[in-house]
Specification:
Length: 74
């Protein structure tokens, strides 16, 4: 997909089409991280709350099944 920047006040804007946003499960409220490697711009949804939720779930699983998991590891 090729896009062009548009003028937005004194800034430049990039319009992201609805199908692309739906594919990434991004809404107007989703925080986006913008980074660069010096040659490319990378725009990624911030998914920190998913990582925190995953780690909390992992802690609950380990607490509940630690004995079974230890036996499986042997």
């Amino acid at each position: 997909m090729t896009k062009k920047l548009i003028q937005h006040g004194n800034s430049a804007a990039l319009i992201l089409d609805k199908p692309l946003l739906e594919l990434l499960n991004v809404t107007m409220d989703t925080p986006l991280e913008v980074s660069t490697d010096g040659q490319s711009i990378v725009i990624s949804p911030v998914r920190e709350h998913y990582e925190q939720e995953f780690l909390a779930s992992l802690d609950r699983i380990n607490a509940r099944f630690s004995t079974t998991l230890e036996r499986l590891a042997k």
